[in-house]
Specification:
By secondary structure, the chain is α/β, with parallel strands linked by helices. It folds into 2 domains: 4-98 and 292-310, Rossmann fold, CATH 3.40.50; 102-283, 3-Layer(aba) Sandwich (Rossmann fold). It has helices spanning 13-22, 37-46, 60-63, 84-89, 102-117, 120-128, 157-168, 182-188, 195-201, 221-226, 244-252, 292-310, 322-325, and strands at 4-7, 24-27, 49-52, 71-74, 93-95, 149-153, 172-176, 190-192, 204-207, 232-235, 258-261, 281-283. The longest helix is centred in the last third of the chain and has 19 residues, at 292-310. The relative contact order is 0.14. Bound molecules: NADP nicotinamide-adenine-dinucleotide phosphate (NAP). NADP nicotinamide-adenine-dinucleotide phosphate is lined by residues 77-78, 98, 101-102, 105, 154-159, 176-179, 208-212, 214-215, 236-238, 262-263, 286, 288-289.
Length: 326
């Protein structure tokens, strides 16, 4: 009997083909609509490998029924959608797709910063609605990027790639992590500061920490109140790190200038969400790594990891360090 794989979203045939040559592959039949919980639960009970998307919640309860499952390969670098501990207890390897998406996500983060601070969205919306009646001296004036201070919360792989872009805009870069990175400080001329100091000093703040128990709502009312009235907040890592109620208040009361969001507490964000009523928000639908090349590269990593595990090899990019547990 060939090992069986379930893929939780419809993916391009040519990327799935190498798996089909060796294994039995079942795939959810929609690209737009996520797999139902019932189907996911049923498949988890049967399959040897699961290829997941960041929108699939693989919690302890869901993993309870896993009988043969050996590997979960997630099409993302973040893996907060999977209960890593529960998987580890069941001897299931979890892998992710770091590095290949770093530059693409940094492009999006920096692009979102430019769009937000310079108000691309509201200016374009106004133009399309016929609001461009004449050139106006102070119309759609935003905040400068070049020569200002950028604060990066989470100076990891993507954080560093954003810092490199910022240097091209002659920005002074502050960062905050749990651990200082002296080599990075020297290499990219960036300065370590405590979180509160970063929030007070930065003209633009970019959030690039993973979603964990520690980072959940790490930017709330108190933190937002420390930011400059002219500052922008860019959230590109995961929803839930910024308290959306507090963010709504800060934007509505203009205690910060604007926010650019690629990620939300609930995804897709409900159309009636109060944040979407605000003019000083630029919102995109979780497209950080969404370039053709990068998504294909990420998928190839998933294929390699699943193949490795099913053929008895140690896969790259394990996030639940099972090797040490075995
Ligand atoms: P990474 O290399 O692991 O970097 C994460 C950084 O966050 C590390 O430098 C880490 O440093 C810091 N950090 C972790 N916990 C922290 C805390 N409690 N307080 C302060 N700093 C903390 O990860 P990456 O590859 O850059 O990716 C970052 C995140 O971006 C991913 O986890 C994912 O959620 C998100 N992402 C989103 C998209 C998208 O489409 N929007 C695409 C790719 C990635 P310390 O350990 O020293 O604290």
């Amino acid at each position: 009997m060939k090992p069986t794989i379930f893929i939780t979203r419809k993916l391009p045939d040519e990327l799935v083909a190498p798996l089909k040559e060796k294994f039995t592959v079942r795939m959810w039949d929609s690209e737009e609509v996520a797999v139902t919980k019932a189907v996911l639960r049923e498949e988890i009970a049967q399959v040897d490998a699961l290829w997941t998307m960041l929108s699939d919640t693989i919690d302890r309860d869901m993993l309870e029924s896993a009988a043969n499952l050996k590997v979960i390969s997630n099409l993302a670098v973040g893996f907060n959608n999977i209960d890593i501990e529960a998987a580890k207890e069941k001897g299931i390897i979890v892998t992710n797709t770091p590095d290949v998406l770093t530059e693409t996500t940094a492009d999006l983060a920096f692009g979102l910063l430019l769009a937000t601070a310079r108000r691309f969205n509201s200016a374009e919306k106004d133009l399309r609605q016929g609001g461009w009646l004449s050139w106006t001296p102070m119309g759609f004036t935003g905040m400068d990027i070049h020569g200002t201070t950028l604060g990066i919360i989470g100076m990891g792989r993507i954080g560093e790639a954003v810092a490199r872009r910022a240097k091209g805009f002659n920005m002074h870069v502050l960062y905050h992590n749990r651990n200082r990175k002296l080599e990075t400080e020297e290499k990219y001329d960036v300065e370590y500061v405590e979180l509160d100091d970063l929030l007070k000093q930065a003209d633009h703040v970019v959030i690039l920490v993973p979603f964990t128990e520690e980072t959940k709502e790490m930017i709330g009312e108190r933190e937002l109140s420390l930011m400059k009235k002219t500052a922008t907040l860019i959230s590109v890592s995961r929803g839930g790190i910024v308290d959306e109620v507090a963010l709504y208040d800060a934007l509505k009361n203009e205690t910060i200038f604007a926010a650019g969001l690629d990620v939300f507490e609930t995804e897709p964000i409900p159309l009636r969400h109060p944040l979407l009523t605000l003019p000083n928000i630029t919102a995109v639908p979780h497209i950080g790594s969404a370039s053709v090349e990068t998504r294909r590269a990420m998928m190839k990593m998933n294929v390699e990891a699943i193949t490795d595990v099913l053929e008895g090899r140690e896969p790259k990019d394990q996030v639940n360090s099972l090797a040490s547990a075995r």
